[in-house]
Structure formats: C-alpha cells, structure tokens
Amino acid sequence: MSAPCKIKEFRVDPSRLSSGTWCHSRDRQIGEGDISASYSGDKIGLEGCVRSPFKWQNCLWVCTGMVSRGDFRAADAYRLVPRRFLDGTPISYHENAMLGDEARTRPEGFYHGMAVRHGKQDYVLIGPSAVFMPSEDVQTPRQADLFDLL
Known about the structure:
The chain is mainly β. The protein has helices at 34-37, 41-47, 93-98, 101-104, and strands spanning 8-12, 21-23, 28-30, 54-56, 59-69, 72-82, 115-118, 121-134.
C-alpha cells in the first residue's frame, strides 16, 4: 500500500465557489462562480467530457464535487492537462469504476489518469485532488453611500 498523498487546500475568493441562483426568465444560472461552474462529475461519467475548466496558479482545473466544510462550501478539483503529458495509459471512467475500491482508495484519487475531452481536445485529469475553500480575508463588497464621498 502506498503512502497517502497530502490533500492540498487553496483559499479563493468566495464568489468563485458560489452556486448562483436560477433565473427563470433567462433560463440560466446567474452569479455562479467559475469553480462551481466547472463541476463535471456528471459529464465525466456519462459523456467522457468536462465543462469549461477554471484557472488557478497557471493550471487548468475541473471541479469533480462540492463538499460542505462547516458553514461553507468547498470544491474538490483535479488538474486538467493535455493527454500528451501523461506518462502511461489513461483510463476511462467506466474502466476505473470497474476497479471498485482499488480506484476509490488510490492515493492520487479516483479521477487521476482519467481520459476526458474538452471541446475537440483530449485531456487527462491529474491527482491528487485539491480542495478549494473560501478565503477568510476576503470581505463582501459594500456599496458606497453617496455621503461617503463628501
């Protein structure tokens, strides 16, 4: 058994994790953060592709799940890299799921090495996953009062 990988935690602006609100008149989500919008767990399993990734530290990432951590939401995400950068053979979601507990307990995470598509390009997800949590030092913007300017 290999040693467990330490899960990285990154602090981001809370607006990036926002789930937004459904707008019936526009028939779309309003105010959804880029990290939440990249959620692709369903598309990976059903279609082998991902939604638009988000950028963090000069890398592309895809959210594979949202988790609750106390009183806030956090995102579990994997790096998304072009297929040519993977040493070895990528695995499909179906092949990985057939491995059962072996895939679920792998130190690099369930989605590590998984082949996916974004647009017309072939990519692979690279683990271990990272957890993106809301930054504690970012305050909610406050609208300036007219009299603040005087």
